[in-house]
Amino acid sequence: MANPLTRNFLQDLMALEDFPDPVVEFGSMQVEDEQEGDLRSLFAGRDFVGTDFREGPGVDRVEDLRGLTFGDGEVGTAICLDTLEHCADPPMACRELARVTADGGICVISSVMLFGIHGYPNDYFRFTPEGFRTMLEQGFDDVFVTWFGHDGIPTWVFGVGVKGRKLGLSDRSQFPSLVEEQRKYDEAPGELRVGVMRHKPLELLRDVAPELVRLGRERVRKLR
Q: Is domain 4-187 in CATH 3.40.50.150, yes or no?
């Protein structure tokens, strides 16, 4: 289920790389009604299949990422956005994605690192950029990885792998939407930058005020 950040990353990537048919989304269930996560509109008129490990809105075919029923090289474009953290065996999932991706095909994955637990229905893992690179390098011939957020602990991580060809990707600057979101994160307009976090002033005051009171009382007790 793609959020705006990952959806925009995918759109930027589509302007840079070939996305052969058939297109298969792994993790296509529309869990939250208020989010525009359906990727079908990006592939209008194309051979598109939405899969998830359970039935629901946006799901055409039930699949388990740890053991896909697609044949070797049957998928032209494999898309797995914001889903791997909900899979109990992400390395196996990436091996399966590589197995089913055709020669000349492409696989796009994204997931989170600095992000709260969100069970859909379960939430198991967080990923570093090098973790993504390692998983993709097990089955793809060329790999690109980038991220959004703080260099030391990113919020989102993105990975692209292809088989039988080279990627024309070098760095994050090729993705206009990601560049813009990173600019907003770095500049933090209207927010306070506290380490890797960004806070609205009143929200931070609301959260910090009780702690200041607690520390003040603690200090008073020590002085008695």
A: yes
